[in-house]
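SEQUENCE-TO-STRUCTURE ENTRY
===========================
What this section holds: a protein sequence and its matching fold, both as plain text.
Tokens: labelled as protein backbone structure tokens, with as many entries as the chain has residues.
Question of interest: how does this chain fold, as expressed in backbone structure tokens?
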Amino acid sequence: MFYQPVLETSRLILKKISLEDAEDMFEYASDPEVTKYVSWEYHKNIEDSLKFINLLLLRYEKGEPSDWGLYLKENGKLIGTCGFLFIDGRNMIGEIGYVLGKKYWNKGIMTEAVRKVIEFGFEKLNLNRIQARCKVENVASERVMQKVGMKFEGVLREAVFVKGRFWDMKMYSILKREYEKNREA
């Protein structure tokens, strides 16, 4: 059973998303540039955002790994998501994914959020490995993985079929011992 507590960074509150967040979500999820590298299609209307939020609410209810909403402390606005796509409890592995509104790119916000989710994964969920993947072309996502101390493991050739084609994916990971060493440094 996965639990999703409220997490906090210097600029963000990470918490469960609610139906009231549909307009904020639609604002970033309807941007084809934001959704260019994600596995889902951009939201064409507010109903698409409501459907996605209802999916998250169901995951929360079932205690399944899911996304936190990323809310700016200064105004409470939802600007993206970050969370666990899955957790393999037997092997103590978690995989994370994230998306952020274009207005907030290149400000270190996603790096801040991913660091917090990694901390939670190692310190509260007792994971041994946290991994993330991105399409080979997604340089910005890869940069976030590098900044949080993840190591490049290789390219998974044609690993996902999304938006009508196969995509090569870069795999990054960080181990608990590496996280602990980085924290001490």
User: Anything to note?
Assistant: Residues 7-184 form a domain with the Aminopeptidase fold (CATH 3.40.630.30).
